[in-house]
Fold:
Amino acid sequence: MANKLYKPLLIDSIQAKTDLTEHRFVGFDGKHCTAGAKALGIADVSTEKGQFAPVAVCGILLVEAGEDITAGDEITSDADGKAIKAGRNDITNGYSLDTASTGALIRIVRGI
Structure:
């Protein structure tokens, strides 16, 4: 498979309150985002607890799919910070640009 386009427009940092896994949603508390919650962004690299993690906040970003996703789906976080389809009452953390299976990296657009 070809590499996917990755175009972060803003990267910020946050102190990791737990070990963070690359390509997962990060909450404003420095932990993986909880289910259906608003994310600060996506961990740009895996980061150990106590270190400062680069977090991609907006742009075209890569995130791990927690379920099968279709291009155009509104995306939210599951309990592990993975991307899932947003339900009616979930907060949207972006829109999928790819169709992919569970565990795949998908591109999402944030900040539009």
About this structure: The chain is about 0% helix and 40% strand. The radius of gyration is 12 Å. Residues 9-110 form a domain with the Virus Head Decoration Protein; Chain: A, fold (CATH 2.40.300.10). Strands lie at 7-15, 25-26, 41-43, 52-64, 74-77, 83-85, 94-96, 105-110.
